Amino acid sequence: MILFTTKMCRLTTVILEEDVDAVTKGLLGEGVLHFVKVTDVSKEAESYITNACPESVQGKITETRKRIETVFNVINYFPADVRELDVSTLTSIDVDASNRVLDKITVELQKIRDNQKYLQQEIHKLEEIKRQLMLFSSLKGDINLAEKYTFLDVQTGRIPAAKEYEFVSELYSLPSVEIKLGAGGKFLTFLLITMKRDSVLVDKILQSFSWEKIEYSDSINKLDANTLSEIDRRIDKLKAKQDEASQSVAELVFLKKQQLDDMWANLRMNELFYRMQSFYCRTSRTMIFSGWLPASKRKTVDAEIRSITKGKCYLEWSEPKNIENNNLEIPVKMENPKLLSPFEMLVKNYAIPKYGTVDPTPIVALTYLAMFGLMFGDVGHGFVLVLIGVIGTVFTAKSENKGVNKICQLMIWCGGAAMISGVLFGSYFGYSWFPPLWFYYHGIVVGYPGTGFVQSVYDILFITICFGIIVIGLGLVINWINCIATKSWFRLFLDKGGLLGAWMYGGGVYTAFYFAGSGYSQLPDTTLLFILLGIPAVLFMLKPPIEFYLHSKSGYAAKFSFAALIKFGMDWFVEMLEIFSGYLANTLSFMRVAGLGIAHVSIMVAFDQMARMTTPDGSFNAWSILILVLGNIVVIGLKGLVAGIQSVRLNYYEFFSKYFSGTGEAYAPISLKRNN
Hints:
Layout: E1 3-4, E2 8-16, H1 20-30, E3 34-36, H2 38-41, E4 50-51, H3 55-72, H4 79-82, H5 95-135, H6 143-149, E5 152-160, H7 164-171, E6 176-184, E7 187-195, H8 199-208, E8 212-214, H9 218-221, H10 224-277, E9 281-282, E10 286-294, H11 298-309, E11 313-318, E12 331-332, H12 341-350, E13 358-359, H13 361-375, H14 379-395, H15 402-425, H16 441-446, H17 457-485, H18 489-494, H19 499-517, H20 526-539, H21 543-553, H22 562-588, H23 591-612, H24 622-655, E14 665-666
Parallel strand pairs: 12-14
Antiparallel strand pairs: 1-13, 2-10, 2-11, 3-10, 4-9, 5-7, 5-8, 6-7, 9-10
Helix pairs in contact: 1-10, 1-11, 3-5, 3-10, 5-10, 12-13, 12-15, 13-15, 13-23, 13-24, 14-15, 17-23, 19-20, 23-24
């Protein structure tokens, strides 16, 4: 079923200033109005209106909302994914008060984060020393040698026992390890490990604490294992403190979660509220705004505004066909079942259809899946794609990036198409476990003669060429419908995608089939050839002068001359080349569908042969099964990706190019719904 873009209408409203907030709240609850600037609708209005709401107000609210979202990132929570906004809870916002609440929470969080940063720095210091100790294996035998050949400075000494705390605290600013070796009276003996690069600073600190260096003893030379153990103990202790700090951050955010969640919801609604009012314009006593909405919502919005204002308003409704300003962009809404959202995504990635033209989403779903199935026909591989798609859809259901979720949904569709094709071709993970319903693809590719219509690889190529002709023909029909809908009569008759172009394409297809059917030795008779190709080619000569006339009639400055005649001839010649070469290339391009399908089968056959080579008698063992598993993984990943990309390419360049007028603006109402 061919669907057009949703019928739209434009609303221009004048209300009293006292009703502005109530009307805005009501429209926000409806969430259907795509606002446009009043000055875009009427240039004369610029002389007597001013903007009603400065953008700076909305900017402050947005900044505060994003601050809350930054706090929520700590617990991987995003309110927009789970919070349904209710306009009845909308209250006026004090941005400064909200920021003061956030400032207090941020200060508490920053204290914990500063502590985390300090702990991480200490861990890095200890890990750096540990790496140096472990790099020099001779440390196990003689710590004096280690001191000479590593970047470490290892020494023992003693300080007054009363200065122990200050001594350790002072060395914390440097990568260092202090291991207490013992106490003797009023002194403490330490094994001190520092980096040689810090020797100047270390010496100053040691002098300030009356460091008395002593010689290594035999017991000290064997302290390497104890040293590493002490470092590990300190690192573990610091990491435990880090975990506690992380837990403290999460607990603090969870403690404030409800308060922040409610604050976020009100900020978000106020943000949308003021975004609406940024489109309002003020006169001396009234407010004016304008926007587009689906025609089906007209009665609801009309009744809502009249009810809120108690009839004290002026509403002007306009149909697109009655609008004098032809340059005014009409937003496009594509209404498709939710199941088709992945294919609507493919269409929108190309462009937004022009208002009033065909929404090709349902047709793209059919052509895309048919192409994918022909290139990737295997029940087992399709089932794997469905499984991956289902898992991906579940895990990305609440993802902020909706595109990933739609790609996962597309994988489910593609997997289903592959399974259907696999049943038709009798392919199950590359093997024919059940007889095919159509033809045995694998058998034909490896050289076994087929039965019925499809008996060789050439027949497969022929099928894809016929499929391409159908797709291109469908594109031409859609183009005619678009031309009629937009009253583009010139394009309907004299464009290469119009009736005359289709005449030539049909004639070219018939001629090609006739030539191939005669064993590539005979063309249709001259009279028929002239009717099929000659007459439309001659009629195309009318296109340049008619275009010249239409431009002149619309005020386009041009003079008829001999040079203009030469230009007419050149334009006609170039267009003939474009038609013949373009349509030929478009049609033959569909041979890649057969090519990739044959490649898919060939790779599976190759892996099967590799698996059988692992044993002399060609039977299967553990190695052959491993080869088959890896082979199927490669085919599913590589060929599945290629088939998906080529299906998109064929739709974009061979199908869309025949009719798509991608000049539309997406319908984007200001609404409480998610992602608005």
